[in-house]
Each structure stands twice: as C-alpha cells, then as structure tokens.
Write a structure and sequence with these properties.
Family (chain A): Belongs to the complex I subunit 2 family.
Largest interface: A-B, 72 and 61 residues
Order of helices and strands of chain B: EHHEEHHHHHHHHHHHHHHHHHHHHHH
Oligomer: heterodimer
Distance between the termini of chain B: 74 Å
EC number (chain A): 7.1.1.-
Number of helices of chain A: 21
Largest sheet of chain B: 3 strands, mixed
Shape of chain A: globular
Strand order of the largest sheet of chain A: 4-3-5
Main location (chain A): membrane
Helix content of chain B: 55-70%
Protein name (chain A): NADH-quinone oxidoreductase subunit N
Number of helices of chain B: 24
InterPro entries (chain A): NADH-Q_OxRdtase_suN/2, ND/Mrp_TM
Number of strands of chain A: 5
Strand order of the largest sheet of chain B: 1-2-3
Number of strands of chain B: 3
Amino acid sequence: MSLMSSVLLLAQEQPAPPKVEAPPVSAIWPILIVLGAACLSVLFEALLPKHLRWPAQVTLALLTIAAAGVKLVTYVSDAPAAGETAMFGTLAVDRPALFLWGTLLALSLGAVLLIADRSVEPGGAFVASAAIRPGTIQDRAQVASTGMQTEVFPLTLFALGGMMVFCAANDLLTMFVALEVLSLPLYLMCGLARRRRLLSQEAAVKYFLLGAFASAFFLYGVALLYGYAGSVRLADIAEAAAGSDRSDTLLFAGMGLLVVGLLFKAAVGPFHTWTPDVYQGAPTPVTAFMAACTKVAAFGGILRVLQVALESTQWEWRGVLWGVAIVSMVIGAVLGLTQTDVKRMIAYSSVAHAGFLLIGSIALTEKGLSGTLFYLLTYGFTTIATFGVISLVRDSSGEATHLSQWAGLAKRSPLLAGVFTFLLLALAGIPLTSGFVGKFVVFEAALADGMAPLVVVALIASAVAAFFYLRVIVLMYFSEPAADGPTVTVPGAFTTAAITLGVIVTLLLGVAPAFALDWASSGVFAIR
Amino acid sequence: MTGTINLAGTLADGAQQATGVANLAWLLLVLPAAGAAVLLIGGRRTDKWGHLLGSATVIGAFVYGLVLFFDTTALGADDRTRDLHLFDWISVNSLSVDLGLRLDPLSLTFVLLITGVGSLIHIYSIGYMSDDRDRRRFFAYLNLFVSAMLLLVLGNSFVTLYFGWEGVGLASYLLIGWYQGKDFAATAAKKAFLMNRVGDVGLALAIFLMFKHMGSTSYDVVFAEIGNQSTGVVVAIGILLLLGACGKSGQFPLQAWLPDAMAGPTPVSALIHAATMVTAGVYLIARSSPLYSLAQAEDARFVVMIIGAITLLIGCVIGCAYDDFKKVLAYSTVSQIGYMILAVGLGPAGYALGILHLLTHGFFKAGLFLGAGSVMHGMNDEGDIRRLGGLAKKMPITFITWTLGYLALIGFPFLSGYFSKDAIISAAFSAGGGRGWVFGGIALFGAGLTAFYMTRLLILVFLGKPRWEKLKSEDGRAYHPHESGPTMTIPMIILSIGSVAAGAILSGMLPGWLEPSVGELAEVHGPLSHTAVSILTVGISAIGAAIAFAVFGRREQPVTRPQRVSWPVRAARADLYGNHLNEALFARPGVWLTRFLVFVDNRGVDGVVNGIAAGLGGSSGRLRRLQTGFVRSYALSMLGGSILVIAALLMVRFA
C-alpha cells in the first residue's frame, strides 16, 4: 500500500512525462520477456540439433507466455491507477493496455498450443522445409515426413511482442514499428502450411502485398498528421486538434489514411478483402492466432487512437465510421450466407464481428471501452476453439473444410458436433454464451451514447448472421453423412487443451461474466 | 411450512423476498436441466432408463410447483409476489443485471401448466417414441425445453426472460427437426428458427430501449418507471414487445412457421407448439400489463388487438381448407392464440381472460394433439384426413377423449372453452363503440368458423366410412388401426377431464388469484349482455357445426383432394399467401442483397472501384499493371474504400 501511494504521489508531482530519466522497467517486463524469448528462440533454431528443436521451442514458448503472464499479474496488483509511461514516453502502460496484454497472452497461449500440436497432422501442420517448391517430388516426400519448420515459434513470439507494443504505443511512430513487427512474421507464417501449399503461399503473398499497401496508408496518414500537429505523440495530436487554427485538411486526410490502415488490420469491411483468402489458405493454427490476436491488437490500437488522439473531433468522423461499421456488418453477415468453405465462413463472420466491435469503439465512453475490451476477450477465445475444432475434421488430403463434407457429422462424432454447435451459438450471440454478453455490453454502450439506429442495424445483422451458423448446425445434425466423408481425428493433448480452454472460457464468460467485466472496466486510457 | 411467515419484509421495489420453501425455487430450473445434462452426457449408457429419468425430473418439478403453489395461496394477497435473487450476472459501472426469479400468481400458474402438461406429455412420449432408437435424446431435448420455458416464465427481468426465450426457441428447433431423414423437417426447423429470430430482434430492441430509458430491465424498476416515460417510448416498447410475441406465438405476419413445425413428433406439437411455448407471447404481454395498461400505451394496445383479430380469422379460414390432421390443429392453435392476444390487448378487462383461455386451451389442445398422435400411431403415421374415417369404433378411448376436447374447443355449453372463449368475445364487444362491434363481430364469426373446421375434422377422421380399408400407406403396408397403450391413453384421459372441467373451476378463481400480477379484472359492460353474447356464440357455433355436418357428413368424401375449387379455398390452401408475404418481405430482399454483394465481391469490385479510381486520373490503370490476379481487385476495393472514407471525412468537415 505504502509503495502504491508513493508511486501515486510521484505521479502527481510530475505531470510532465519523463524525458530523460531511466525507463521504469517493471511496467514493461511482459514485453521484454516476450521479445527476449523470441531472440533466444532464434538462437535455439540456429544452435540446437534438429531433434531437440521442437521440444525446446515448445517449452520456451509456453514458459515465455507463462512468465510474461506472471509478471503482468504481479505488476497489475500494484500498478498506479493513473498509468505510467515507459521507454521515454513511447509506451503508455495504463489499464486498457494491461487488459489487452493479458488478453493477448491468454489467447496466444491457446494459439501456441494449436501450433505445437503434432498429433492431428503427423509432424504438425507446418511444412518441414518451406523453400521446396510445391508439387515437386521433394515436396510430396516432405508431406509424409514428420519434421516441421520450428521457425514458426520465434515468429509467433515476435508477432506477439509486436502486438503488445502496438496496443500500448503512445505515439504513431512506435505504433507503426509495432505494426510491422507484428505483421511481417504473420505474412511468413501464412505460407507455412504442410498441405495445400500453393493455396497457403498464395495467401501469404496476398496478405503481404495488401498489408504493405495498408502500411503505406498508415504511414502516409502519420506523415500528414505530423505535418498538422508537429508531433507524432497521440496526446500532442489531440491538443493540436482541440484548439488550433491550422488547416483541417491535413488533419482529416491524415486521420482517414491512418484509420484505414488500422481498419485493414482489424479486417473491418470494406477493407476486409484479404480476410477470406488468407483465413482459408493459412495453416489453421495460424488462422486461429491471426483471427484472435491480430483482432485484439488492431482494436486495441483503434481504441487508443480514437479515444486519445481524435476524441475532440469525434463529431466529424463519427458519421463516417458509422457507415464503415454498417458496411462491415452487412458484408460479413450477408456474404457469410453463401460460403461453402467453413474457414471462409468464419472469416466473413469475423468481418461481421469487426463491425460489432467498431460500434463499441466509436462509443467514446467508459462503457464503450470496457464493452469492446470484453468483446475482444470473448471473441478471441471462441475463435481459437472454433479453429481448433476445424483442424480436427480431416480426410486423406488434409483438413476437410468444404461444408458438404461436414454433413451428418453429429452421427459420427456427437461430442465434436456438440462442441462446435456451442461455439457457433456463441458466435451467433445466443444467451448463456460469452458471445451474448459481449454483444449485450457493446450494444448497450452504443445505445447509451446515442447510436440507436446503429444498434438496430447490428441486431438485424446478427440475426442474419445467425442463419449461416445455423446452416452448419443443420448440416451436422439433420443431414445424412456423406459416404466417403471425413474422419474426426482424436486430438492430442495440446489441441484438446486449446479447445477445452476456449470452450470453458466461452461458457464461463456467458454464465458469470462479472469478474472479467470488472477487469475490463477498471480504468480508462490515462496517459494523454 | 415456514414460508407462510415472511420475516424478510418487503424489498425496496415492492416484491417480497422469497423465504422458506420458496428459497428452493431454483430447483424448478435445475431438475429438468440436470435430467437433460445426464441424458446428453451419459450417451448410450442411459438408453435403458433415460426416458424414466427424463419424466421423473419433470414430475418432480411439478410436485415442487404444487408445494410452492399452496405455500403461496397461504399468504395474503399483498405478499404473494416474491423475488428470489440468484446471483449478480453483470455488474459493471452503471450497468447491472441480476439473475433472479419472480414467484407470483402469474408465474406459478404457468409453472403448473408447463410442468403439469409437461409431465403428461413425457409419460405419453414413453409409449409414442418407444420405436425410436434415439428416444433418450428426445427426452433430453424435452427436458431442456421444460427448463428453458420455466426460466422464461420465472425470470424477474426482461433479460432473464430473453434467456429462456432463446432457450425454448433452440429446443423447439431441435425437436422440429427430429425426423432427420425427411427434408421438410429440416426446412421446417430452419423456418421456425428464422421467423423466431425476426421476433427476437423486436424483443431485443425493446430490452435495449428499456435499458436506455430506465437503466434496468427488472420488472420492478421497469414497471415503476414506465409511467414517467414519453408516449413515443412507451408505444415503441409496446410494439416491439408485440413483435417478439408475434414471432414466438405464431401471430400475423409471422404465423407461417407454426403449421410447418408440425413436422416434429406429435408430443412435441402438443407440448411446445400448442400448450406452452407458443403461448409465451401471451405471457409476455400479460407480464407487461403495467406497461400496456398505461394511457400512453393506448395505441400499442390497439395494435395488439388488431394483430389478435387478424390472426384469429386467418387461423380459422386456413384451418377450414387443410387436409393434414395436425396442420388443421396447428392453424386452430394459431387462431386460438389470436383470441388470447386479442384478450390481453383489451387491457385490464382482458389480461385474466387471456390467461384463462390459455390454460383451458392448454388442456384441450394438448389433448386434441395427443389424440391425433394416437390416431397416427395406429394408422402407420397417416396424417391425411381424407385417408382416415370411421375410426371411432376402432379407437374408442381416443374417440371419446378427442370428442371431449373438440366440444371444449368449439365452446359447447359448460365445458372449458365455453367459459374462456365466450368471456373473450363478450369483452371484445365491450371495447367500446364501433371498435367493440368490429372486434366482437370478428371474434364471434371466428367461433362459427372454429366449429365448422373442427366438426369437419371430427367427421372425416372418426365418423363416416372407413376410407382407409382399400388403401395402403406410403411404405406399402395395409392399415390396421388399433387403440394405443396405457402410457398414451391415460394422459389423454387426464387431459380430457381437464378439458371438461378446467373452465368451470378456473373461471371463478383465476381473476382473483392473478390480481397481484396483472391487476384487478375490470368489469366492463358493452352493448350486449354477457348472457346475450353466450347465446349468440353457442348459436353461431351450432350453425357452423351444422353446416359442416351438412357438407361433409351426408356425402361420401373423395380420398384425393378436389382440385377444382373456388378462389377462397385456393387462397386458404395457400396459407392465405402468408408464405408469399413473408418471402416478399424478408426472404427476397435478402436474396437480392446476397446476390448483389456476391456479384460485387467476386466480379464487380473492379467495375465499381474503377469508376471511382478512373475519375482520379487513371491511377487505377497504373495500379492494375503493377499487380496481377485477385490482389489487384482487392487493393482497388481498399483504395476505393479509403477514398470514400477520406472524402466523407472532408465533406463532413467542410460541407
């Protein structure tokens, strides 16, 4: 207690952000651990003999996440309520940032478990040697081999580190660097699938090209905003926008470009076009990681930019983001209806969810913030478990993702069909699942902030989206199984753990969400 | 019984805290839910005794419901509304939602109906589903339904009600699609789910409106605050709640799913789609009586009455034209719920009457459905009434119990329907002025039609010549009608006793008993005295039945359905174009939107975006040369979106 009060006193006595003093390390230990372990992981890759790499990498990744989590928890227990800056004012460690870090660490635990699994696909879902050209004799040989590219672990850790920096970035340049740190590993990871490598590599290239395109938007936006405010710090931009007679064209053009860059990462329509192809092509564990963690990081960034830097101009941009949210919900809900591939369907579902999340993000209230943070948590866990289940339904050529192959699955494997049904109901937002609570708090916040028409659209969109989840349930339960249908693999310990984790959290946050809502609402963006 | 002494005193907002035996009210939810969990998780191991466990949990809930009922009757009228707090579900900042139960006369009435009829139907299902390999799973779903339905009626806030609301929808959906091999079952299940979603959106919007304007959805707060709201808010909430009720209760314009839902097993039709779930809409409106009774809600109540009147007519008319045993009964249900909705739309003069009709209807309609199930069970699942006939001698118990239910439904003097339906018709006449004449006239005319189509059903199924003797069922078997076993006949007998006696017993007691929940039953006097209305109704029903006898009883009926018929019959056979209407309203715009978006997504992106981009100095051309394949069009769509976003931002700023 005394420590906390003295920290508080210190924070009060020094209103100006520290310029030259040594960075307070205690706040950013989780980031340091993750990035440090990522470097160590690269060394493992270079120095360890081949047969030791997989166990060493898995152990390191899991230990890293656990250690970062422990550090985070110990820090949270006596973190200053007003937050603090670190790394010379480039990182803002406040309550939302801490919540997002916790969410990211928990979700990446699930994703790493899926990535590490080698029982579902013998040797793992990742290619043994990514450089071999698809379709060649060597390539066919390596499908049968049991090795795997263990570089995926350092890549995951780097991406995770980038995401954590991204949602705590206090200025736009740090945010851009973090964006690249999280994106580049993801581009690579998308191309590492053992099966259907052409599709996977195509997805990687598409994601890279479009990602680079979006980064350019982001960077151009940063440049324009710097031109406007003379600083890249979020707080300075806010100050400049609140009271200045400078030309607003720079501000709004810059703001638009910046927001587009962010919306791309969050897969909000109409900037979603990469999502279905990439979700479908990437190895399923990577899709899970992308769908859950990237969404969290991107919306963390969006929340911070909107609430800290752009709050004073909200009446100008709000209407535009209304439109974007509606487009995203409609595209996601309607196009999801016609999908025949289960991974593409979940991709469109994620576009619709991005629309719902955007509604929460543009409600610039405490409720909007906490609701969106909570929604991210629930959506992430449900998604990881969903992709975990998808990875189990296989035929001789790998995963059986075509919906017709899921017909009558409930007869073959009632447990798997039951779990998947539960997860789909959570995505649809049926009560007593976390999806319902998430939608409930977000819509409630939006309504309280005067966005009733948007909530009406959202409710209709979620009713429409419920239909395509339902279609899968109908297929699984009410159709005759195909004669040469897929088999359901008995998952190994890792995948079982990931799915169980996702399902339990989905149920728990549906039945007793109070504690997580308390965390999500424990504070607002304090560093301004 | 310690519950009689209330030590806790009143809560701040009116409801008493539950004490004593009422503290265990959560058992009502947990017993059936636990049954469902054991049966679903236990899998094949529980096949042998699963149906017994399923029935036992519901009977247990019924017994506890009875204990609770007598515990409550021992209290004074002012102490009969009690709350049982379960736990804080969401509590964050200003948003707080508790899960709690409301034990009052209204909810207890429903508890007894749900668990009572539910128990009988569970017992009946033991016999009816004895040939089904998955009987255990069937009982698990039934238990799930009972639990969700109890949550719906017991919740003490609209959010809790919404939980149960979605839960019963899900269980109903699983049960409609029970016969997985048949295509129409899956289609019917989907249709039910979708049309219910339309209603659910209405209910969800009403709930959000309550949050926005009153900061809570608990009954206590909402009903205390609703009087201070503007007329617009009250009417909006009233109409949105009605939309929810229309979805769940098969009211116009969302009635088309209910007859299709008959694709499910007959016990399901009886329990869910006749006696309990479809009456949830009536419950919702009766529960919201403090809202609908307000002077500001006059318009909303008027809409409720219109919907009820339209639906009761639609149901009767279509019921006259169908040849499927269960579908006629289904449309009859639609029309009877129309009567209930009309009644609760009348306001204080009608809430108790609506609930009374709901209860009597629960008895006789469940009995009629079980009778239909018994006939089909003995006739190789034949449901086409033109292929039945003359079954009275083969199935005497079914015939007698069914006839008692039939008489109750058409309002034969001093049976159940006579007390409940006539009271509604009389109250409708009293609505005042021309309005009263219109609604009363419709309700009266509906009674005549009801007698007509029900008599037609009776004649074609049980009387006349056995037309099935020379026919074979679809699977090539000859018909050997036989009476069903005791697990099926005993529930039918019990329900038929209820059909005979429930009206007389309940009509005197129910209004007083429900007073703490829905207020005093207002005495209204219309242009016609109650006796006059009764005589009129009985007379018109008699005419309807006589016409049916004249048309169907004298001549021999063809086995196939006549095709050359007049336009009203054609319209009625086509559900009065209800499906067409729904398709035009909901399905077709959706299909068009989907096609349009798919087109834009697959091929049109280039076109749409090129248009914008070309206008910006041919930059699209350069970009197109830089990239190949689909990425090109993706990038273009992003560019187009960005241009739109920036242009819009600048326009908002400088316009």
